[in-house]
Every structure is written in C-alpha cells, then in structure tokens.
Specification:
single chain, 241 residues, mainly beta, outer membrane lipoprotein receptor (LolB), chain A, twelve-stranded mixed beta sheet, 13% helix, 46% strand
C-alpha cells in the first residue's frame, strides 16, 4: 500500500502525462443537493423536499473534459407544505457548463444565474489533494480516497478516484488526480456526486465543445453578482453545477 500511495504522489507532483494511455467517453453522474442546508428556518424547509438530484454528464477525452446537465428542461417537482397540502413547483434548470483542459491548465465555465448567462475563463490552479490511504470499490473499480479543504468557504471535499481510468477529470470541474473521480462529497453531504454509468467510446469535437456566449466576467466578479443576488433573495440560492 505504501508503494502504491508513493506512486500516486509522484503522479500528483509531476502532472498528467499526455502521452500515456487515454480514455474517451461519457460518464453520467447523480448530483445530489441538500436543499435544507442553506434554508434559514424550519417553515421554509417544510415547503420543499430536503434533497434534489440532477442528472449530469462528463464528456472526457484524455486531458479534456466537459461537464454539463444531461438535459436543460423545466423541472416539475411535487412536495407538500407544512400543513400537508400538496404543492407543485415548476422551475427551469440552469444551463451550466464546465470545460477543463488539464494539460493547458485552461478552464472555461458558462454559468446561468437568474436567467442571465456569464462566461468565466480562468487558469486552472493545482488542487492540494491529500491521499488518506482509504480504498473502496465503486462500480467495480478500485478507488482511492483524496481530500482537501476549499479555502473560500472552509468546506471539506472528499473524492474517490480510480487509477484504472487514467484521466485527471471529475464532476463539476474537480480534478487534478491521477484517475477519474467516481464519487465526491462536498461539505459533509451538502453536495454529493456519484457516477452511475460509464460509457467509453470515441467522441466528436461537438461532445467537447468549449462553452461560449454570455457576459464575460472574472470569477471574482461572478461571485459578487451571485452574493448580491443571494442577499436580495434572503440568502437562498441553489448550489452546484
């Protein structure tokens, strides 16, 4: 086990070798959000289900990946209010796309907020993953655990990746490990990603099209727009990709 962890650490230090074996295909994820974690009081929690799950897909080809909604449609949800009365909410899922090129250290994100689209271009930064030595099987693959803490919100992130699929990608733009991330937990269950299907096949350029359109902003500018919007809405905003 010590030799195996040492080998993974060397890969983390020297980066992804673009000449190594690559994989192409589509990975489907369930993106499960705990809606109650960001609601301010119990009465609001009673008006909506605790969890919401989105179907997401990751197109991956070697050092490139594109993460987006499987479909962007109106979402029809049934729930009950605090008096037990049936309620139906119809909302449109946001169009969010996250492109990563780990060799060129390039990231492009298309984010939708309140019906407006924003385009964010940024240089990828190295994530300070730490290997724990924990292992388990996911979808038949041997996986290793890696963790780090997001500095912006002091949130713990736990990822399970497999060296059997040697690509640096993962859900929602996470990556930088010497293997595909098949499962991930952000902030102790607030946001959980689980790979449900892996379909490796030859992709077209359209499958990995770099996002375009929308108002060009920096990450800091978008965060301010999002935070201002949250204040107007009383602190309620949907999280996740």
């Amino acid at each position: 086990m010590k030799k195996r962890i040492l080998g993974v650490l060397m890969t983390l230090c020297y980066g992804w070798n673009a000449t190594a074996q690559t994989n192409e295909g589509i990975v489907l994820y369930d993106q499960k959000i705990n809606m109650h974690r960001r609601l301010p009081d119990e009465s609001m929690k009673a008006m909506m289900p605790e969890f919401h799950t989105d179907k997401m897909q990751l197109a991956v080809r070697g050092v490139e990946s594109l993460y987006k909604n499987v479909e962007v449609n109106d979402i029809d949800e049934e729930t009950t209010d605090q008096n037990g009365n049936a309620m139906r909410m119809v909302r449109r899922g946001p169009q969010n796309e996250i492109y990563r090129n780990f060799e060129e250290k390039k990231g492009v994100e298309l984010r939708e907020l309140a019906g407006q689209k924003f385009l964010i271009r940024d240089e990828l930064k190295q994530t300070p993953w730490k290997l724990t030595g924990e292992t388990k099987k996911i979808n038949g693959y041997d996986c290793m655990q890696a963790t780090y803490t997001q500095p912006e919100r002091n949130q713990p992130v736990v990822a399970w990746f497999t060296e059997a699929i040697p690509v640096s990608s993962g859900p929602a733009g996470y990556g930088g490990l010497p293997g595909l991330i098949l499962e991930m937990d952000v902030n102790d269950g607030e946001l959980v990603y689980t790979a449900t299907k892996l379909d490796f096949k030859k992709l077209t350029d359209a499958d990995l099209k770099v996002p375009s359109g929308g108002k060009k902003v920096t990450e800091a500018q978008f965060n301010k727009i999002r935070d201002d919007f949250m204040k107007e809405r009383g602190g309620i905003i949907r999280i996740g990709g």
